[in-house]
Known about the structure:
2 copies of one chain form a homodimer. By secondary structure, chain A is of the alpha+beta class. Chain A has helices at 16-24, 59-66, 129-144, 152-167, and strands at 3-13, 36-42, 45-51, 71-78, 94-98, 101-111, 170-177, 182-186, 191-196, 201-203, 210-212, 222-227, 238-239, 244-249, 252-253. The first copy, chain A, has 4 helices and 15 strands. In chain A, the strands form 3 sheets. A 7-stranded antiparallel sheet of chain A has the order 3-2-4-1-12-9-13, with helices on one face. A 6-stranded antiparallel sheet of chain A has the order 5-6-7-8-14-15, covered by helices on one side. The two termini of chain A are 31 Å apart.
Amino acid sequence: MCQLLGMNCNVPTDICFSFEGFHRRGGSTDHHADGWGIAFFEGPGCRVFLDAKSAVQSPVADLVRHYPIRSMNVIAHIRKATRGVVALENTHPFVRELWGRYWIFAHNGILENFAPQISGHYQPVGTTDSELAFCYLLEVLRTQFPDRQPVLDQLFPLLREVTGKLARHGLFNYLLSNGEYLVAYCADHLSYILRHAPFTQAHLIDQDVTVDFSALTTPDDKVAVIATEPLTDNEIWTPMQPGELQVFQHGAPVPMS
Amino acid sequence: MCQLLGMNCNVPTDICFSFEGFHRRGGSTDHHADGWGIAFFEGPGCRVFLDAKSAVQSPVADLVRHYPIRSMNVIAHIRKATRGVVALENTHPFVRELWGRYWIFAHNGILENFAPQISGHYQPVGTTDSELAFCYLLEVLRTQFPDRQPVLDQLFPLLREVTGKLARHGLFNYLLSNGEYLVAYCADHLSYILRHAPFTQAHLIDQDVTVDFSALTTPDDKVAVIATEPLTDNEIWTPMQPGELQVFQHGAPVPMS
């Protein structure tokens, strides 16, 4: 399978600490060595760094580790190929534009017997079930709301409905963001931590690295980090429940009815 | 204005030498310091490196200079902002998917009184005339050929028609690629060089750097490099004519009727 990492904040924040641990799972502390990628929203703009090499061997990952890009919505993925060869076009996260916004998607899992009829509005470039699911999901959103982005209260029930349909095909943990908020769906493995004042120290599981967030933050900062498996061993991560769909905005979960 | 750099080859080739000279114009030998970007096709996959910083100050440009990514179609852009603030969402090249392929676009120039009616199939995320022109262009292609990508002989007349319409609004030098071929349109400044056997030495204009291509190539290699201004001072570059639309494939111009 793969592993997912997401971050949603109320102020632009760099993900260097979390990525430091996460990227080690891409071929060092774990076997997700079939490419990796990370997408940063900066305002409405978005940049995606991809490499078909393993994260621990990738010069692009070295850049991301040492160049603190500040973002309020980040999605990263390290791949263990199940469907689709190891190649750039099959490397997550994927990006498409909808309603004049970039949408970013990454998936952990596998879908079986999944061959939806899509109109061609969005077509996969690669051969993964994941990119096909993303194209299908965006087509559903666009078909239901052809003109403009609805408010989250309108969008959420549709997201839940289409997620349910997709999840029936197999394992469908995913992260999705439009730069305003980050959507996380847990099929079997996804946990999150909410960091806010008073900030403390955090210690990575995958490397002996500690950061003192109190020295790097202001009292108003709020940061949500979502990952397939917890990244730190001295903080309490909240495991999401199978079937749980959660939206994070401004560094906190959004209560949805 | 801005500057454009494109490369089209018959074998995956790195662009490090050309980019070495080109990136210096992003704030050192020239004043195009309002962000930069470069897109590499690798098979059908594509990765775009963007930075709103000047190319000479950008850690991402350092990566691109030192990490030889081999590609058959590359488009790069350094920006001198005319329309749209300096921000990631206004940084070229832009990417969208059409017919299950990524399309990459970068523009040098400015369009006046350009407010086309677009259906919303592709919508700009940023505020540049360039991204709007790209969205319009793709919409025209998609509307004419809704189901699948036509052969180049069918596509070219339409490209010429829509380019003509856009060019009437101002200066519209552009580069466009779908990973199969690279389209270059010259409004006022665009030149190219075709490198093939016997390969010789080339010397950059913007830095005292020489490369001996004969040591880096095989006799079958063909490389076309297209740039707003020539990048080397010891080779003969072909200036494109105002109004000239040229397709490059396998490292050479494609004769089009």
